[in-house]
Amino acid sequence: MNIKLKTFHSRTKIYSGRGSISALGAISKELGAARCLLVADPELEQHGMIELARASLREAGLHVEMSLRVEPEPYLDNADDAAAVGRDLQADLVIGLGGGSAMDTAKAAAALITNKGKAEAYIGLDKVSIPSPPTVMIPTTAGTGAEVTFTAVFTNRTTSVKGGINSPYLFPNAALLDPELTLSVPPLVTAFTGMDALTHAIESMSGRSSSVFTESLSLTSIRLISASLRQAVYHGNDIEAREKMLLGSLFGGMALADAGVGAAHALAYPLGGHYRIPHGLANAILIPHVMQFNLPASVEALALVAKSMCESVEGLSPRWAAQNAVDAVRTLADDIGIPQSLSDLGIPRADIPMLIESALKVTRPVENNPRKLGPTEAHAIYDAAFAD
Length: 388
Hints:
alpha/beta, Rossmann fold, three-stranded mixed β-sheet, globular
């Protein structure tokens, strides 16, 4: 008997609150830590966040070593370098502090402390065979949801191909959400990461693997982000907006961990790998076009997206309510200063065939997309993204 089961995993203990970074030492001690590896975005030093983390760990009587070699859209060797520090330390806890790049590097480094070899060997699904030391993730941007996912995404420095290490062993043990750590995020970064989080929520809502377990998470994420992102971009010191964005990103991450993402992510990967386009920016440009493409196959889901964005759908057919969702996402992106087309990023239109070839190799999002995505369909979406 061939039965398709719906499942839901929630493995991360979540701590949330303003000023909660001060609890890091106590949380780490609760996880049995004595020697901690702190993997952090080096830019956080100037904002005092790294010292806040270290001070809390020291106060708890824990030893801490740092790895600050984290690059935007991180490379595989960033994880290898952090793991080397962790092995020398014999770290029994790994902490990721920063955006998705720092948290992905930390999760992979933790796995490499107990699993032999280099990060490149673990790109794919379920290649990590030995549990890693416990991990604590502390996001300083509201975007990736990496604090609750089992994926760490890297670019191969030689081939410029992006890929993910995907394993249940990468689920963080704890996530610490302190909105005060996001107050200094610049407007454009707030916009890019916020649209990344929104893309996670929309694609997890409309994808083939969406379920009753994940729909409420996706829709809550969409509601929080669409109501708060403009305020967070233009009034960055608004702690309530920042807090709602951080929670929206978290719920989107929880949803995508089970329901996955779709074509926007697959098509965005080569933009990051070959041109170093920030992942959130690539998603932000592509998601309205992917929604338009997927609309005939996801009318009901997108109609619910429109309602969660507080669009007026009373009296509309589901089809027109779904179209309102597409239009609302376009308007939101425009309002917060997202470039309108791939041409605005200086990407050559002649590279579309190469982009398609790379994107269709990102098989999990392609297969999870609600509408079949082949070379012809991918070309149409890229073409539209250049035309805006």
